[in-house]
Write the structure tokens for this entry.
Amino acid sequence: MEQQPNLNYIQELSAGDTAFEKKFIGVLKEEIPLEKKEYIRCIANMKYKETGDLVHKLKHKLSILGLTEDYKSAVIFEEALKNKDDQLKDTFLAILEKIDTYCKTL
Amino acid sequence: MNCIIVDDEATARIIVERLCSTIQDLDIIDSFSNAMDAIKFLNQQQVDVIFLDIHMPGFTGIDFVQTLKNPPRIVLTTSDTNFAIEAYEYEPIVDYLVKPITQERFEKSIQKVKKSLEKSTVSLPETGNNINFGDELYINIDRRLIKLNFNEILFIEAKGDYIDVKTEKKIYRVHNTLKNIKDKLPDTIFLPIHRSFIINFTKIIDIEDNSVLIEKNVIPISRSNRPELMRRLNLL
């Protein structure tokens, strides 16, 4: 079954501090749509270095959201992009869309 | 104990801020989304520890460490484990945290920082290579020894088996190497910024991305020389 994003890590870290949770969610909701848009732009323009940097940055969010399997794909994709190999571009876009959809429920 | 956080990613900064807030005797002075702002801040104020992201656009955490004159303790935070071995080559780096950072692992890191602070102050080795020279250099041009004052030299460029010594008035082509002339120049004002260029950094007009402007000459800065150049600048 496909992994779904969750806030387990954030809730563990917050230890009930809802102000922290809200702050984190606020930034996440703000950043994800912009990063998705930027990813689409970079990949469409074959900007491999920029895409790689973006994947690297987003990798952290995947791990925060408990997406361990998607994180592994992102690691492979980031390495592949160094060789201008973008075969996993749609897989990664699907991950971003999954997170974006999740963020809208928060 | 006080700290700053340097990370280009906002969510990462929020998480480290949260982790820091759970440590009783740790105060966060500031957070920075880019290395340059943090370097400017550190030129004005001392801190005990920096939580520093390695992978930032344009300026890696390792570049950052090399740039600091008297680096405090540094804890690297990263999504990669690839840099770990390289990281420990730098004395100020006391720990390496892989994201997402757990509370337990963060507390261990704080203990490492505290232990390190108890020991004597650490710093990166200075490049101190200052030798007392006169204020001039004689260069051999067509069997004539021509005197050049250091302060009239703008930069020196390697040109195959020759070097071009560019002054405010003229370019002198000398059969010599960049390494030889480097040894004759005071490192208080001269600095290699590229394998083909040594500049008189008092003559810099401005610095933009990966180049410096001296008079009308745009001179490239190599990635490996950039930290030392940034370290020498009196940044506001």
